[in-house]
Amino acid sequence: MTKILVINANPKSNSFCKSLAEQYTSVAADKHDVEQIHIGDLNFKISLDEGYSEITTLEPDLLDFQNKVQWSEHIVIISPVWWGAMPAKFKGAIDRTFLPGFSFKYLEGKSIPQKLLKGRTSQLIITLDTPPFWYKLIYGNPIYKQLKHTILEFCGIKNTSSTYFGPMISASSKHRKNWLDKTARLASQIK
């Protein structure tokens, strides 16, 4: 049994990302221990105004976010692409919670920090209005590069797969059903 954290990174109260998160959770919960976070439900100050220069007290929702990340063995991030990247509220949650001492630690004399979230894996499910091949080829796949390399790997989390659904803007109900079915298959493949 794997401890799975499913993060719906879309802040909207009703979105296809939320439906995907619910689908993933429902299927995975048959064999695994699953927790969910819906970014839109969290109440916190989005900006880390002073960076790491000053300690900013974490709100209860962000403490819960950190606790669920620490508890997890596998993290599923379901995010829309907004202006080429992740929604600001999700980025704000990362900025505020993936802090030194929690997700990484600077070591004196070393240019690469210690990765404090090692041993975890992740899976990305991305929705977008742009056709996925165009987003990857022409725009350079910035959400993937940021999440996989500069956030997850930086902290020691190994991404195992990335799945793209789009374009959402013109998707028929049949497309959406197929994407929900694929999400169920992804959830059923977790060991």
TrEMBL record:
Highest taxon, organism lineage: Bacteria
A GO CC annotation given for this chain: cytosol
Coiled-coil zones: none
UniProt entry keywords in alphabetical sequence: Oxidoreductase
Keyword Oxidoreductase on entry: yes
Gene3D superfamilies: 3.40.50.360
GO molecular function, one term: NAD(P)H dehydrogenase (quinone) activity
Flavodoxin-like fold domain ranges (all copies): 2-173
Family of the protein in this entry: Belongs to the NAD(P)H dehydrogenase (quinone) family.
UniProt protein name: Flavodoxin-like fold domain-containing protein
